[in-house]
Amino acid sequence: EEGRRGERERSEEGLAERGPGSAFHMFVLMEDLLDKLKLLSYEEEALRRHNMRPLSRHYFALPTNPGEQFFMFCTLAAWLISKAGHPFEQPQEYDDPNAVISNVLSELRSF
């Protein structure tokens, strides 16, 4: 209990040092990401192919369903890597998460 309180206090101090708007920075980043994905036609090219719903404005900013969010992230990462000209196999929903992330990172390092 004592350790957690100390962590929480340090976390709150960190937020105070960065300013009152820093708690909302992740929401701004997510909205920017969504705008960029829309410019790349992600709905038509990535989501429809996999029969997935479009992202909400704050999809990755709030932890709602980690498994679903991870799969969406992997789907988008694979699509973006392929769009950049590097053939990349679309991960499946029940693939080992560590292996998927390792493959994504390995492919990105090859850029």
From TrEMBL:
<dbReference type="Pfam" id="PF10498">
    <property type="entry name" value="IFT57"/>
</dbReference>
<dbReference type="GO" id="GO:0005929">
    <property type="term" value="C:cilium"/>
</dbReference>
<dbReference type="GO" id="GO:0042073">
    <property type="term" value="P:intraciliary transport"/>
</dbReference>
<keyword id="KW-0969">Cilium</keyword>
<dbReference type="InterPro" id="IPR019530">
    <property type="entry name" value="Intra-flagellar_transport_57"/>
</dbReference>
<dbReference type="GO" id="GO:0005815">
    <property type="term" value="C:microtubule organizing center"/>
</dbReference>
<dbReference type="GO" id="GO:0005794">
    <property type="term" value="C:Golgi apparatus"/>
</dbReference>
<protein>
    <recommendedName>
        <fullName>Intraflagellar transport protein 57 homolog</fullName>
    </recommendedName>
</protein>
<dbReference type="GO" id="GO:0030992">
    <property type="term" value="C:intraciliary transport particle B"/>
</dbReference>
<comment type="similarity">
    <text>Belongs to the IFT57 family.</text>
</comment>
<dbReference type="GO" id="GO:1905515">
    <property type="term" value="P:non-motile cilium assembly"/>
</dbReference>
<keyword id="KW-0966">Cell projection</keyword>
